[in-house]
């Protein structure tokens, strides 16, 4: 079959879970026992070139089957689409899926269905980048600004960001793009690590991993807080002693507090000079974030990993509620919506420091930040991508860290492709790991 008539022929889905709760990896004040999971999909075609589109959205265990079911519900909207047209305009699928009136009722543009749309759209971008023989960050950075703007849905954000303004922002970044790309390839993009800071870790493990972070070239770590103030004071004291007085330490409450608690608790930790406080309260509470920000300055306020869509990000920026905007590669409606959010951040001059970790989130979000640096914001000042040293070996093209920096991916695609052996072993509940685990538990009982 010739490429001009090739189509999407299948959407295969997988419920993939890793038993991270057993070592308390990922533990925080709101999520004490996460099993890092991915509702994963593969787009298959009849093009005959062997290329596939891989995408996923991240969950923490129970409910991953619900997320997979949501992706399955989109199959009829995808199978049969012409491949050339789809890869030339991924925004067409994004618009069709978020615009379907009956699916839209389940959101609109939020929750499980919106995350499913994001997973599918991201898989299309993975396939488009592979067909262009470019890593996604470079596909985006090389793209004509007019085409990039055509990929953005300006509905509900045009009151603060017009198409013309977005085009101007992208054109502004064009003159020095080649030099920035060379700098990115040479130096990488700065990261910070949350690996020392999980709430379930002992003080000894926290201290050891914090010292390792310094030795590995990071300039910032993050600690989970919010369960017990006395514990937080003790842990922050240990972390500060391990990294020294001039090293940035961020804190993350994972939505644990009411607004008043957030203010009081953050102030109680200021002796340790926290750089930002993350998710101090509900991600939907825009005015609450604004109140916290006004009260705890100069500690910065960061949020975004659970923000539902570009419209909520718009309001956080309008209300001057955040100092740091944290995109998530899999929470919103895929690359297209994250382009809108990056443009909003550029319009308001707010640094973007993405949420990562989880399963494959580091692999994905690096592309978005690198595009932002090369083609949009033009800076990495006060910008870092979260890094967590978990589960990268399950991906065909895992992230590479050098002296606390993400090395720019060179392989074509979105770095989303998981190893076939990992899919087979960790698919729930019948994969090799989970089947053996069930036998072990039944024997023990």
UniProtKB/TrEMBL annotation:
Give the top-rank taxon of the lineage listed in the UniProt record for this protein: Bacteria
| InterPro entries the record matches | Enolase-like_C_sf (IPR036849), Enolase-like_N (IPR029017), Enolase_C-like (IPR029065), L-fuconate_dehydratase (IPR034610), Mandel_Rmase/mucon_lact_enz_CS (IPR018110), Mandelate_racemase_C (IPR013342), Mandelate_racemase_N_dom (IPR013341), RHMD-like (IPR046945)
- Pfam families associated with the record: MR_MLE_C (PF13378), MR_MLE_N (PF02746)
All residue ranges annotated as the Mandelate racemase/muconate lactonizing enzyme C-terminal domain in the record: 203-299
Q: Which UniProt keywords apply?
A: Lyase, Magnesium, Metal-binding
Q: EC number(s)?
A: 4.2.1.68
Cofactor entry = Mg(2+)
Supply the SUPFAM superfamilies for this chain.
Enolase C-terminal domain-like, Enolase N-terminal domain-like
UniProt enzyme class:
lyase
Q: Which reaction is the catalytic activity of this chain?
A: L-fuconate = 2-dehydro-3-deoxy-L-fuconate + H2O
Q: Matching PANTHER family, A to Z? A: ENOLASE SUPERFAMILY, MANDELATE RACEMASE, MITOCHONDRIAL ENOLASE SUPERFAMILY MEMBER 1
Q: Which protein, by its recorded name, is this?
A: L-fuconate dehydratase
């Amino acid at each position: 079959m010739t490429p001009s008539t090739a189509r999407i022929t299948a959407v295969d889905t997988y419920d993939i879970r890793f038993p991270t709760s057993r070592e308390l990896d990922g533990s925080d004040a709101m999520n004490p026992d996460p099993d890092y999971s991915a509702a994963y999909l593969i787009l298959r075609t009849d093009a005959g070139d062997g290329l596939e589109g891989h995408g996923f959205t991240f969950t923490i265990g129970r409910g991953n089957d619900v997320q997979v079911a949501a992706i399955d519900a989109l199959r009829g909207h995808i199978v049969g689409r012409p491949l050339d047209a789809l890869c030339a305009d991924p925004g067409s699928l994004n618009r069709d899926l978020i615009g379907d009136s009956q699916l839209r009722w389940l959101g609109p543009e939020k929750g499980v269905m919106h995350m499913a749309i994001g997973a599918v759209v991201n898989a299309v971008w993975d396939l488009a980048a592979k067909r262009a023989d470019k890593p996604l960050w470079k596909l985006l950075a090389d793209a004509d600004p007019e085409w990039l703007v055509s990929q953005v849905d300006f509905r509900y954000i045009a009151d603060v960001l017009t198409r013309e303004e977005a085009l101007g922002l992208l054109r502004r970044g064009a003159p020095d793009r080649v030099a920035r790309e060379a700098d990115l390839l040479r130096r990488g993009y700065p990261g910070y690590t949350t690996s020392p800071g999980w709430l379930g870790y002992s003080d000894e493990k926290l201290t050891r991993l914090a010292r390792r972070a310094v030795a590995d070239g990071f300039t910032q770590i993050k600690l989970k807080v919010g369960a017990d103030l006395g514990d937080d004071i003790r842990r922050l004291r240990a972390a500060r002693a391990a990294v020294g007085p001039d090293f940035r330490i961020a804190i993350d409450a994972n939505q644990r507090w009411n607004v008043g608690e957030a203010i009081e608790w953050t102030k109680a930790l200021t002796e340790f000079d926290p750089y930002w406080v993350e998710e101090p309260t509900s991600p939907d509470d825009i005015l609450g974030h604004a109140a916290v920000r006004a009260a705890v300055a100069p500690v910065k306020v960061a949020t975004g990993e659970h923000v539902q869509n570009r419209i909520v990000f718009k309001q956080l920026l309008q209300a001057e509620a955040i100092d740091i905007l944290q995109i998530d590669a899999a929470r919103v409606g895929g690359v297209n919506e994250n382009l809108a959010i990056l443009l909003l951040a550029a319009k308001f001059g707010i640094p973007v420091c993405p949420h990562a970790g989880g399963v494959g989130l580091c692999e994905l979000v690096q592309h978005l930040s690198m595009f932002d640096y090369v083609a949009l914001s033009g800076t990495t000042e006060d910008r870092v991508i979260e890094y967590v040293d978990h589960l990268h070996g399950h991906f065909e093209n895992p992230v590479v860290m050098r002296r606390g920096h993400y090395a720019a991916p060179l392989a074509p695609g979105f770095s989303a492709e998981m190893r076939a052996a990992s899919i087979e072993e960790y698919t729930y509940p019948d994969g090799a790991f989970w089947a053996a685990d069930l036998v072990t538990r039944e024997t023990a009982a």
